[in-house]
Amino acid sequence: MRVSSFICFSILAPLLTMARQFVHPGYHVLMLNGSILHTQADLDRMKFGVANKLDPWYPAFLNMSRDPLASASYKMRGPLTFATRNGTGSSPGKTAISNDAVASLLNALMLASPALGNITHAQKSTQILSGWANTLQLLNGTDAQLTAGLYGPQFVNAAEIMRSSYPAWPQSEIETFKTMILNIFYPPASQTTPTALQRYPFDANWGSAGEKAIVAFGAFLDNETIHVSLSTFTIRYDEGLSLYLNFPCSNLNNTINSFGQNCESGRDQGHTQLGLGNMAELCQVAYNQGDRKYWDLLNDRLMVGYEYTAKYNLGYNVSYDPDFYRCDANLVGGPWANISSTGRGQLRSIYQIAYAHYVQLKGKRMPWTKRKLEQTGFETNDTVNNVGDTTPYGTLRFSLFEAKWYPLGCYTDSVAARSLPVRTDVRGGWQAMTSELCQSACQAAGYTYAGTEYSGECYCANEIMNGSVPAPDGNALCNMTCYGNSTEICGGPNRLSLFVFGAPSFTSASNATATSNNVTASKTATLPGWTPLECYTNSTSDEH
């Protein structure tokens, strides 16, 4: 019996697909739709890293797979009809809902990883999601905003993966889950007006938790218009973005000052890091919806905040302004004359998500965050604070192939119509010209393309212009050595040695299918220099 299968081929070609250029997923498109915090390209990158046993994805995945919350045999703590979180005293249901929320996500991530997507993980994740959706009636307590703002996003991230990857999850159950998010999680997460029970809502990390939750809920629900009793309202993810920009007690500017101090740095390091992680999640969800400015606001203020906190928690001294503190600081022991050492060195799982964006994608520097990540190794679940407070296993989920300069080869150019129109000086002048100096000058000026020409000229742009194409004669006329390094080629007459800054991108090649035993997907990973061709027939009896 001849058994046919399919195999995908790639050929080497002078093409780079950059991570910054991937197409963000649409809504309700099977397996073209990533999760709230992850595009399908992110999930494909994770699969590729695990399948090929690449560092850090493979060891990070093995680390996650040993977590009891990632087990398909995990025993649910719930579901319950209510979950309470109080600032003091007992909080019945908090442990159940936080553990189950994370378990639903980790089982979903097990499904999203390569050949390890056993159907039992899909069943476990959806069992948890549907169980809570069919049972939960109330989130209450003095800290209900935190329950909704912290655990709700864990649930919707799991649900987004499952509805895109597991057709056996009934649409009726998905609708019930959506109703739970709308009616039970959204109201406390979005509360900005004081009530008798929650007298100081949306302060500091409460507000940032609410902001990230609204953004995640809105993205998951596609900004649906909701009808409740006699009122009609719309949950919009940009409501959360507006609060992040403007709400006085939890906006970016009033949470992190110009040199990176957090408004809760004087309180303790746990709450400081919680707020940073909340803001990073909001920025990443917005980025995945096509709103890319939020990571960059106020001259990378969030990055500055990360660096400040990482440096202090690594044991180094930092500046401190006692006049910069959160709203209602008196409720939690403030204002504070000095930065707090409480929780110093107890690092939450919040750093990889920011490092991936600023350093691995954008090519910026975060030396203190890098040292923190090197010191702690894999980001795991939070074993010091409440499970579910921060997004777990960041090393697996957010690590990128580091952005760098990739050669594209020899391109045509013309003095009258430049391929890259911005002429740029390099350090040391034209006589010092090297490829690296030109790349550095272009990157510092904010450009993603760099090209050298005629031994000592450097040009930059964010796109290739004026019909420039790979030279028809190959590298024949890129024949002039760089003035600053005779072992390098710096273009030639009307020829540009072209480079692009970026990182590999991963794109979906086909829809996923679920069987009774496994969930499988056919994917194409696009690496620099490789262009996917098509899917070709193959046979186990006639190897190609």
The CATH H-level superfamily of the largest domain is Chondroitin AC/alginate lyase
| Amount of beta strand | 5-15%
Give the low-confidence spans.
Answer: 1-34, 225-233, 507-544
Tally of individual helices: 15
The helicity comes to 25-40%
Content-based structural category: alpha+beta
CATH architecture classification of the largest domain: Alpha/alpha barrel
- How much is the radius of gyration in Å? 25 Å
CATH topology of the largest domain: Glycosyltransferase
Number of domains: 2
- What shape does the CA trace take? globular
Question: Could you name the key traits of this structure?
Answer:
2 domains; 17 strands; two-stranded antiparallel sheet; disordered N terminus; alpha+beta; globular; 5-stranded antiparallel beta sheet; disordered C terminus; 544 residues; Glycosyltransferase; single chain
Can you put this structure into words, describing what you see?
The protein has two domains: 17-398, Alpha/alpha barrel (Glycosyltransferase), CATH 1.50.10.100; 404-502, no CATH class. The protein is α+β, with helices and mostly antiparallel strands and 544 residues long. A five-stranded antiparallel β-sheet has the order 6-12-8-9-7, with helices on one face. Strands 1-17 form a two-stranded antiparallel sheet. The radius of gyration is 25 Å and the shape is globular. Helix 1 (40-51) crosses helix 2, helix 5 (144-165) runs antiparallel to helix 6 (171-189) and helix 11 crosses helix 13 (367-376). A hairpin with a 3-residue loop joins strand 8 and strand 9 (457-461). The two termini are 18 Å apart. The protein has helices at residues 40-51, 57-65, 94-112, 119-133, 144-165, 171-189, 204-221, 237-246, 252-255, 269-288, 297-313, 351-361, 367-376, 394-398, 435-444; strands at 4-12, 82-84, 138-140, 225-228, 231-234, 404-412, 422-423, 449-453, 457-461, 481-482, 485-489, 495-502, 505-508, 513-514, 519-520, 523-526, 530-539. Helix content is 37%, strand content 15%. The model is unreliable at 1-34, 225-233 and 507-544 (pLDDT under 50).
